[in-house]
Amino acid sequence: MKSALSLRHWFYPAVAAAMMIGLSTPVAGATPHASAGCAEISVPVALAPGGPVTANIAGGYCVPAADPGTTLQILIPGATYDRSYWDFPGFDGKYSYVRHASGSGKATLAIDPIGVGKSSKPSGVQVSAYTAAQTVHEVIAAARKGELGHRWDKVVLVGHSFGSLTAMMEAGMYDDIDGLVISGASHAPGPGGILQIQRTVRPALLDPATSDSVPAGDYTYLSVPGARATAFHAPGDSDPAVVAADEATRVAGTIGVLATIPVFIPTTFGIDVPVLIANGRADKVFCAQGGGGSLTDCASADSLHRSERPYFPKADVSTYVLPRAGHSINLALNNRAFFERASRWIDSI
Predict the structure, then answer these.
(1) Residue 2, domain member (yes or no)
(2) Residue 137 belongs to what domain range?
(3) Interval 82-98: pLDDT, tens
């Protein structure tokens, strides 16, 4: 693990992962989707390869009731999000990727990454990009072995923002998946978009929204209050009520993760499975069109392909741009177009 840098350096590169218990119990606080049985699960994991199993990854596991199929999507949220990014509550389910997948007969496991939500929360300096990838690797192994109640022949990682970076790193290091969906990410984050987030950073213990969700006395967990409206959403393609709900449900990220973000970059050169890259055209962090200084051209699917293809020399890369959308494309007004594109692509691999 790389040593921690200054607070500025933690945020500058980008801001900005077994056994099941309770499979028959619905996810706490949620109504199972009509076409799937949903359960709260917990997968025991080690924080390092070959290390002791001292932690767990929690998730919401939704499997089609009639036919589970052979493919499991493991959904990884970005920094300052938990798994609810993939199953956003309220609004009649309009912003739920999980609900859309369930409706089309697809199984999903939306996880809380290590250090987030109901997953284990070690000291923030222990939770690095390496740790995030390692723990996702162990969840994949559990899924393939049948330890989630069904043996999955195909596993597709689906990430958002830092969750996409985790997914790329996991795929490049462990070569154990069948497909990779990257959303809200590129290899060239823009300094302007990052600074919109960086200027709000504070210890999570000092943010009322996150203070009760991090280890007591641990100042290595960080929060970014007030950043979502300016950095994650595009005003012309978002519901103000959704933006407010998104801000109210922010979660903490860790110093260890943010200090090691750049290590994902070389791992993508070894990825040899099909890849779909999907960005919002107005993403302020990862796309030039968002105005944050990124060098990634998200004007069209073709231009995004030209920008990102060199980083995946061994992979079959497809690209998609969601018009008008910002960084958090699941929460855009036109999110369904992305959901449907991802669903069709997963069917094709």
Answers:
(1) no
(2) 7-348
(3) 999 999 999 999 999 99
